[in-house]
Amino acid sequence: MSRTLAIIKPDATGSGKAGKILAHLEAGGFTVQALKLVWLTGSQAEEFYAVHRERPFYGELVEFMTSGPCIPMVLDAEDAVVALRVAIGATDPAEADEGTVRRLYAESKGRNAIHASDSDDNARREIGFFFSESELLSVGAGLR
Ligand code: IDP
Ligand code: MG
Question: Is residue 120 part of a domain?
Fold first, then answer.
């Protein structure tokens, strides 16, 4: 088993899709190890997405991610990072495979329902961004 981070984004929480997305992930074999509701500040969103600082959509992305509450969660699965990227689908829901979270629940390329870490190193960094050591103490996958 390994571990990754997902974030249900403000478009999905605001339209009442969070429960459906969580159920979809659980049915897909992911186990929730930690979860919370957070409303990011501008500086938190800027820090989380700092890797995209130079991209033309950075301002729009930060504005969107601070427009309502998010639900970050730690998920365990076999090969969790890759499995979750497959389960969420392409960034643009129009290009996402049938049955993926983004195809089912995303509005657009920007307002795309869910984030997933793209590597084990980024998963560790992103989990640490949202969850303290004590909040992860009960988690047993051995990555802490
Ligand atoms: P990913 O979430 O599939 O890994 P990234 O390319 O890492 O996609 O982009 C991070 C986030 O930035 C996307 O999930 C989406 O919310 C937003 N984003 C990416 N490209 C665009 C764009 O062209 N227009 C508006 N927002 C975008
Ligand atoms: Mg990405």
Answer: yes
Cα(51) to centroid(ligand 2), Å: 9
List the catalytic residues.
115
One-letter amino acid for residue 83 of the chain: A
Domain harbouring 17, CATH code: 3.30.70.141
Tens-of-pLDDT digits for all 144 residues of the chain? 999 999 999 999 999 999 999 999 999 999 999 999 999 999 999 999 999 999 999 999 999 999 999 999 999 999 999 999 999 999 999 999 999 999 999 999 999 999 999 999 999 999 999 999 889 876 555 554
Task: Indicate the angle between helix axes 80-88 and 18-27, nearest 10 degrees.
Answer: 130
Relative to the CA of 51, which ligand 1 atom is closest? Answer: 7
Residue 106 forms part of a structural domain: yes
* Overall number of domains in the chain: 1
User: For residue 8, what are its two tokens?
Assistant: 């249900």
